[in-house]
Amino acid sequence: MAQIKERGADMMKPENVRFKRKSQVTIPHEIVEALNLEEGDDLECRLVDGKIVFVPMVSIPKDQAWFWTEEWQKEEREIERQIKDGRLTEPMTLEDTLDDLDNISKER
Q: Which long-range contacts (CB under 8 A, 24 or more apart) does 21-29 make?
């Protein structure tokens, strides 16, 4: 919703749309522009407190879904904090990396 407000959509007057055959509705042009929607974009449809809510979605290829898990994103945020705080170490050699991986596998 913040993205909408930044583009001035919070000031848009409500518009009526008609529920058509095959459960189709047309999203008003002003909203389409405010959200930068394009043909083929995915929208999630939710029922919230008796209201129909459409949320623009970004599809992620299945082979990349691991990156968007909460656990992975938590680790990404931690790394970003470490970089920001200057808590970086020198790169390891290949031999050191393999030794570390070997030690980790022995711990399990």
A: 27/54
